[in-house]
Amino acid sequence: MPTDSDDDPGADPVADPTSVLEGARETVRVERRRTADERAAFASFRSRLDAIPATTAAGVTADRRFDGPQPIGYETPRMGTELLAVRDAYQSTVMSVPHYEEEYNDTYAASLAAEFGPELAAALTRESALHEHVRRSVLDQTTAAIETRDEFETVLEREQASVRAASEELRSLDDSVASLGETAVDRLDFGGLDAHRARLEVLERRCDEVATTRQRERVAVEQSMHFDGETDDVQTYLYQDLPVTYPVLAAVAAVGRRIDAVRRDVERAIIEVAGDEA
Questions:
Q1: Exposed, middle or buried, 194 (CB in 10 Å: 0-12/13-18/19+)?
Q2: pLDDT in tens, 152-192
Q3: Deepest of 14, 126, 185, 248, by most Cβ within 10 A of its Cβ?
Q4: Pick from 51, 50, 44, 52: which is nearest to 129 by CA?
Q5: Using an 8 Å Cβ cutoff, are 270 and 197 in contact?
């Protein structure tokens, strides 16, 4: 039987497995909606950017790289019409998703740097003209952003199905344990107590199967999704606001503790019955 310390050493004990699983399901549901919104926003931005031509006027400023602080006296050039069109397109799509302020709450330049890197962000905010190679790079990066969200949406779909299946099984197990726990074991004979103990062993094996399945699915997800150095895995990212990092395994452990509590009562009653019959 897995325990909190075995699978999630940083987790607090979960008293109510149903509650933590409902929290996990809601978290995944919200993340799927937000990912879909962002994917649609980037797709819309790409369409609008594709219709914005690069600057063709003579005498535009040369392309620069802005890898550090600007020299004293440097002034950002006036943004040309095309760059203003890019900004408007980005702000009205990517920066207008419903959760933008809650999740990101950053500026146009900061958002560009986070999504496309500092060099493209500088080219879009500190130059006076939209150069063709910059426009093409932004289109490529936007396509990559869409593909990343496509990939993550697939991961979330699998996570949602995994949590749903585990929730249904654990809810059934928890109900069965509660039913056994309500039995007045002190009124049962040895045969009845032995049947109780056997039933608890079956429930424990089912708990172990839930944990094994969950671990297998977790490994499969981790192998399909690459995170940056600040995030350990999908569940660390998804469930950082929940009281536990691995809600399914924490719920398994909670049901396991309930099974152990009922089993102690049954075994105590068996000892008493055996003593009376001796």
A1: middle
A2: 999 999 999 999 999 999 999 999 999 998 888 888 888 99
A3: 248
A4: 52
A5: yes
pTM of the prediction?
A: 0.79
Residue 277 is encoded by which pair of tokens?
């019959």
CA torsion angle 34 39 41 42 (round to 10): 140
* CA–CA distance, 171 with 14 (Å, rounded to integer): 14
Transcribe the chain into DSSP letters.
---HHHH-TTPPPPS-HHHHHHHHHHHHHHHHHHHHHHHHHHHHHHHHHHTSPPP--TTPPPP----SPPPTT--PPPPPHHHHHHHHHHHHTGGGSTTHHHHT---HHHHHHHHH-HHHHHHHHT-SS--HHHHHHHHHHHHHHHHHHHHHHHHHHHHHHHHHHHHHHHHHHHHHHHHHHTS-GGG--HHHHHHHHHHHHHHHHHHHHHHHHHHHHHHHHHHH----TT---HHHHHTTTSS-SSHHHHHHHHHHHHHHHHHHHHHHHHHHHHHHH-
Count up the domains in the chain and report the number. 1
Each residue of 140-157: pLDDT tens digit? 999 999 999 999 999 999
Interval 6-18: pLDDT, tens? 344 334 456 788 8
211-270: pLDDT as tens digits:
999 999 888 777 666 655 555 678 888 999 999 989 999 999 999 999 999 999 999 999
Identity at 153, one-letter amino acid code: E
Contact 161, 218 (CB under 8 A): no
Mean residue pLDDT across the chain = 85
CB atoms within 10 A of CB 163: 23
Please give the angle made by the CA atoms of 204, 210 and 212, to the nearest 5 degrees: 105
Domain range for 223:
4-277
Contact predicate 30/238, CB 8 Å: no
